[in-house]
Amino acid sequence: MSNNRDKIVYWASTGLITVLMLFSAGMYFINYEMVSEVFTSLGYPTYIIYPLAIAKILGLIAIWTKKSQVLKEWAYAGFFFDLVLAGLAHINADDGGFVPALVGLVLLLVSYFSEKKQHTTLHKQQ
Asked: Are 12 and 117 in contact (CB under 8 A)?
């Protein structure tokens, strides 16, 4: 029973972090002017907007395809640093924009650790 719950938690959290990252990357491409204003106000250079959007998409591909555990770990790490830095930048700017980063961080951690728990449970059963 616990194994099914773990799977549901993993798929739900991974699905929600995917939606968040796809929305973010989409905004970077579709609404570049607005995003560049936000990046500038937070003290980040605007030339990282497109590479960051592409990195988010590639990170999601690494997590969902499960082709390489190393790439998957790097993707989780990249998302972790992205969300922590975004949250801290918004806290520093005192603009109240840290909430999506905090929600994303929680979803990311739940996804990561529930996947680890499933992986461990699977190896114990073998």
From this structure: no
